[in-house]
Every structure is written in structure tokens, then in C-alpha cells.
Design goal:
The structure is a homodimer.
Chain A (H helix, E strand, L loop, with lengths): L6 E4 L8 H11 L3 E5 L8 H10 L3 E9 L6 H21 L3 E5 L8 H13 L2 H7 L2 E4 L16 H11 L4 E6 H4 L5 H8 L3 E6 L23 H10 L6 E3 L4 H4 L3 H15 L1
Parallel strand pairs in A: 1-2, 1-8, 2-3, 3-4, 4-5, 5-6, 6-7, 7-8
Helix pairs in contact in A: 6-8
């Protein structure tokens, strides 16, 4: 109970709900934070979305997501940069302090080339991040996504990148789903320290049926969520615990019951 | 062409073929090595299986597989040890110089506990390995298998374990499918050096449709197989290139055509 105020929920977690429904339901349940996916901003002005959050006492703790820096042509890479700068503007408009970066990968390019284009892409967005006052939050993705979603796959890699990029406007979003297996997790979280500006929770199911949309609610799977939370808090993290669950199974349920289960699991499992 | 004599094929790769069929087909195609899965030894004596290989001029380069050390009870762990010793005996009987270890994992146990039980399990088999003259070859598995197939997920972890276990009867089977994404791959392969006693090839498909049985033929996916082969050879590896492909798609094809494609891909892509 004592940390219930730190709970935030990603709009994607309750995918069947549009933004007006989600903020009303979250607010009524006492949830004060939202991980705002950009699709949920469509169909109204940013000012209207911002007012919708404010009216319900909900704070956007992150805007999700941009990134996808690698491209096969200079035009494709430029389009990605433009979109990342737009995401930073959107985050600023809705009061979100960070944009979560899913860094991207093209299977046609080598890993080294993908990683190089990612670092260059982030570097090219830092001035804009600074000018709008929003941080770029690198989310390392599970290695099973290294072919086409992100060639950044460990906290250690994020640390190496931030050593190059500088700490001022670049941080790390640590999602237990992507990092739980890592033999160097503890030491790299310690090394990251205050670079960790986002902490996402869900669980890993055995067996997992789908590469994308079969995540578990906290406690349904094998991830030591409390252990990893202790590591990031030991390193200095004290912000929101963001519940980010992609699950065909949970999306098919009554979302009010799912929300209630999320809150119970948040209290007992994180 | 020049390295065609280094090609070995896992019996699981041509799953529809039983052992007599596989060795006849491989032999006729000029393939001289086989990665022998233990299921293919069933139904005849080890002496008969060994004769079958000899008669076709085929050498077992590895016996696949044992491991699965973690258990929820002492009895379960003992059963695993017994099975691993039996695998070593089988390997000795068919002339295979190594047993490939899929180390195992129980989602009910912590990662640390799984890893501890694995190291203890391997340690408990070393005397038997020495007495029959067969090496234990640790195969790190992709992190997407860390919940229930193997809590050993990187070459770096294998190196740390072998630092503890000693080099004499323990080595590493490096399968490109499991390790290609690793940011520390090159340095850990260099560190492994002659510890690498197996090299397995296939490819990573985009998108991958199935967690287990949707591997690609070399060249169908995004793995830099030649780059990784160069790394292991630089480190001192000069033995067989083992083709290990689990693929519902390829298993559904005419296996003679698939074998011909394997040989073509081996020549042009590895």
C-alpha cells in the first residue's frame, strides 16, 4: 500500500480503452500516473489531451515511443529523426519528462551498423531534447528483438552509449521483461546509477506463446521483479513503477477486472 | 568447396529421416560428420549404431544432448546426473568426442539458484567425462530460453563457469542462433579460445514465427555467420561446422532437396 502513489499504467496495457476512458478508469482507481502511448494522442489536440490528464489528476510519466533510428537510406534515417523530434515536442506538450526510445534495427544491416546508426540518431536529437526539456530514455530490448526492433539489448550497452553521448539528456528505461535474464544485470544497474529514469514491470510466462503479445501480469511468471526493483532503487531510482503489459489474453478480458488485478499485483508483487 | 569436409549435420535437422536413412543420404552426398541426437540411437544397440556410422564413413562429431541439471528436489537432480553420465557413455560408445549440454532451468527457481545447480551438476560429471574420454560441451542458449531451457545464456557466462570448473573436460558449443546478438561476443570468444569445441550454424528469421522450430537455413536470415566463424577460428577452432536447424517449414519439405540446399548454403554462406 505504501507505494501505491508510484504506480503508473501504460495506455497500451489496457489497449481496449481509449484515452478518455483510460484516464477516467485509472483516476477512479486511484492511479495517478500514465505511460502515454502516442496512438492515444490521436484524434484531439495535444492541449486537449493535456487537459484530459489534468482534469483527472493524472500525470504522464513517459511518452511511448519513438526511436527506430536505423534506416537503409539517408531519407529513411532523416524521417526517423524528424519523428523523434516530434515525439519530444509531444512529450513537452503533455508534460511527460521523457520519451521512451525503442531504438530500432534493420535485419538487412549488420549489428555494428545498426548500433552505430542508433548512437548517431540519439546524438542528433540531444539538442532538441535540451531545448524542450524532455529526456531521451533508451529502453534496451530483449535479445529476441535484436533483428528488427532494437539492436540495443542490455543495460551494459546503454551505459556504453551514454558514456559516449553524455548524461545530460539521455537516460535508461529498465523494463524487467527485457533485462531479467542478464548475468551482468546487477553490476550494470549499479554502473547506470541515476541514468535509470524509467522502470517498467510485467512478467515472463512459461511457455511464452507469442513473441510480442504474451506478457504476464506481475506474479504470473518467473521474473524476480522485487529483486530488480531493489537493484534500481539501490542505484538511486525513486520514480514511477510503470506497468507495461502486452497480452492478447488480458486484452480479451473485462478491462475493469484487469485493472483491479493490476493494482493487486502491483501491491503484492512489485 | 575447400572446407566441405568440415560439414556435419545434426540428425534433428533432417528430422523426418531415421538414422539408417540419414547416414545413407548424408554419405551419398559426401557429408562425413553427424551431430547425433540421442533419440536416433533408440531401437538398436549402441554397437549397431556405431557400425551403421562406420559402414557409411560417417563420424559422430557430437552427441546431442544432455544437461537439464536444475531440479526442484534432490531426486530430480540425481536423475539428471544419472542421465548425463549415461549420455557420456553413449557418446563414448559411438565415438563422439563431446556431449552437448543444454543446461536447463526451472522457472520456479531463481536464476541464481538455477545457475548454481548447473555449475554443481557439471562439476559432478567431470570425473565420469574423464573416465570415458568424452568432453562436456556447454551450449549457451538464447536468453529467450532462460526461463525453462537454459539459464546459461552467453559465452561470457560459459567462460566464468569454466574458470571455476577447469578446462580439462569442459568446453563450449557456440551456436550462432543463440549468441549472434551479444554485444560482448567478440571479446568473449577471444577469451574462450580453445574452449570452443563446437560450432553450430543456422539463421535467424525475421519475423520468427515460433520460439523453437522456426530457424532458418544459413543465408535466409540476418546472422553474420561468416563473421562469427572468423571469430571462433581466430580463437583456435578448426573442427566441424555443425548444421543444426529446427524448422517446421524445412521438415515439411522433400528432405533430399533440403539436404541439397544445406550443402549449397554451407558452401556459400558459412
Amino acid at each position: 500500500m505504501e507505494n501505491f502513489d508510484r504506480l503508473a499504467i501504460h495506455t497500451m496495457t489496457t489497449k481496449p480503452w481509449d484515452l478518455p476512458t483510460a484516464v477516467e478508469k485509472y483516476s477512479r482507481a486511484g492511479v495517478r500516473g500514465v505511460g502515454l502511448w502516442r496512438q492515444w494522442l490521436e484524434g484531439r489536440s495535444l492541449t486537449e489531451s493535456c487537459a484530459l490528464l489534468d482534469d483527472h489528476g493524472i500525470k504522464a510519466v513517459s511518452l511511448v515511443r519513438s526511436g527506430f533510428f536505423p534506416g537503409l537510406t539517408p531519407e529513411e534515417r532523416q524521417t526517423a529523426l524528424d519523428d523523434n523530434r516530434r515525439a519530444l515536442d509531444e512529450a513537452a506538450a503533455v508534460g511527460a519528462p521523457q520519451v521512451v526510445l525503442v531504438c530500432g534495427a534493420k535485419p538487412e544491416l549488420s549489428l555494428a551498423e545498426n548500433r552505430c546508426q542508433i548512437t548517431e540518431g540519439i546524438a542528433a536529437c540531444i539538442d532538441h531534447a535540451s531545448s524542450v526539456g524532455v529526456k531521451l530514455s533508451i529502453e534496451p530490448l530483449h535479445p529476441m528483438y535484436a533483428d528488427c526492433r532494437s539492436a540495443v539489448n542490455t543495460i551494459g550497452q546503454c551505459n556504453d552509449m551514454i558514456d559516449q553521448l553524455g548524461d545530460a539528456w539521455v537516460g535508461i528505461a529498465a523494463d524487467v521483461y527485457h533485462i531479467w535474464w542478464d548475468p551482468h544485470l546487477e553490476q550494470e544497474i549499479r554502473r547506470a546509477g541515476k541514468r535509470i529514469i524509467g522502470f517498467h514491470v510485467c512478467d515472463w510466462l512459461t511457455p511464452t506463446q507469442d513473441f510480442l503479445n504474451d506478457r504476464g501480469l506481475m506474479g504470473e511468471g518467473c521474473i524476480d521483479i522485487r529483486g530488480i526493483r531493489a537493484m534500481v532503487e539501490q542505484a538511486g531510482f525513486s520514480s514511477s513503477i510503470e506497468v507495461e503489459i502486452f497480452s492478447n489474453r488480458h486484452w480479451a478480458r473485462d478491462q475493469d477486472e484487469f485493472l483491479s488485478d493490476i493494482i493487486t499485483a502491483y501491491k503484492s508483487q512489485t
